[in-house]
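We emphasize that the prediction below concerns an isolated chain of 545 residues; any contacts that depend on oligomerization or on bound cofactors are therefore not represented. The input was used exactly as deposited, without trimming of termini.
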Amino acid sequence: MRILGINAVFHDPAAALVIDGRTVAAAEEERFSRRKHGKRPVPFSAWEMPELSAAWCLKQAGLTPADLDAVAYSFDPDLAAPADSLGLNDPWDHLRQEYARRAPSFLAEALPGLDPSIVRFVPHHMAHAASAGIAGPHRDTAVLVLDGRGESASHLSGRYHGDQLEVLAAQRLPHSLGLVYEELTEHLGFLRSSDEYKVMALASYGKPRFLPELRQWVHSDGKGGFAAHGVEWAALAPARRPGTDWTQDHADLAASAQAVLEETLLDLTRWLHAEAGGRELTMAGGVALNCVANSRIAAEGPYERVWVQPAAGDAGTALGAALHLAAAHDESPRPMPGADLGRGWSDEEIEALLKDAAVPYERPADIAEEVAEALAADGIVAWFQGRSEYGPRALGHRSLLAHPGRAENLDRLNRVKGREEFRPVAPMVAERRAAEIFDGPVPSPYMLFVHDVAREWRDRIPAVVHVDGTARIQTVDPGSEPLVARMLDAFERRTGLPVVVNTSLNTAGRPMVDSPRDALECFGSSPVDLLAIGPFAVRRGKAFA
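Result of the prediction step, given as a token string:
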């Protein structure tokens, strides 16, 4: 079967294509439209389809919309309830539900030739669950889904038996760990449903002194569910206006919310293990992008192995919905091959674009060696290689790279990207060396856990060490990422360090670079020393001489 998965109803619209159980392509609409997160998660935008990413997925496989056997839409309006009956203050939510019901006709208009009768609604949390339990490497695994909201719930706990999901618990709205964290994000002056990762970073600067009060509102119920609603944030710390400086009260509030989230997640995983057993846990939903909480689950929870979907947010439901439908039709879907499921360009296509842009470039004997040389000389490198990543993490395909041994490179990169000064950058490290430098789950190819940095290494790689002594690492396996591994080896030969700074190739408020044109625009507007684009090198000195 040829199944197109679609996420559209809330935020991070995306498309994915699964053919005969095999994941062929997956991409987020923001990478094409250049609108961060694709759209805002308001009811008035629920009609918008990821038409650009969907059209690309089909083109990647040489298909037309008429060739599809099914379309899996990751929301089932028949499971939704009126917002006021769910305790939500969302007077226009009925419009979101109506737009979801009309999704088949919207999709047929966006993809001419598509038969609207082949569109199938997949429950939102079932799509999240499949993106972890089916797309992940483990079979017969427990699965935990937590996000802001689905149709009428905010959570699912269950277990996969092969490709079939047994649901063991679900938390009905308005209780939602994701919505509570979103409320805090807004209270702290950041953009709700967008900047939650900033709250996680800010938490490292605080102490959880508001934790006892927060436990009144947020806690597990001992039955596989939880309470998480009605937090009186202003009673704990004043709201921060966007653009103003944060205070210690704000950092302490972030630390307290992070702590109560981690406590609740640990309780949920222990309950799930008691009910379902097993050694593996897979996770999805926007809350699963909280890598600090993931690390506590891995370290203190009952499971031997924890795997998190790299596109754990709503974008991942496009893939999950398609895999869920494939499993329902006995397609025996296979695990996703990696996160590099987006667009890619041939060397010839890249060179043609460089010539059209009249940009001076060269083709060194080995781009990996050339980049290692630039990094060793303390240059900042824009790294554009292979197919783009599915999900919010730069994993060695659309990255900004720098020397980890110079502490000032953290501030330098945050200035390049226009980010807040408290935001950390991440290390990529050769998988064979990771365990001697970082204490935490290894391998960690998708940058979804934080690791304690060994004390003897903290002074050697200060740029990637967060204020609390941790780092969110990406381990690099030469079997799956040979070019990145070769660059790391070349850098280690020059510096003695098997680690390179890796952050996403974008600037603040912009989606990650996706196309060669995006890469040239980012290079032209940022103080980056070298653009490594395919096998070609573009140098700032020559390009702007």
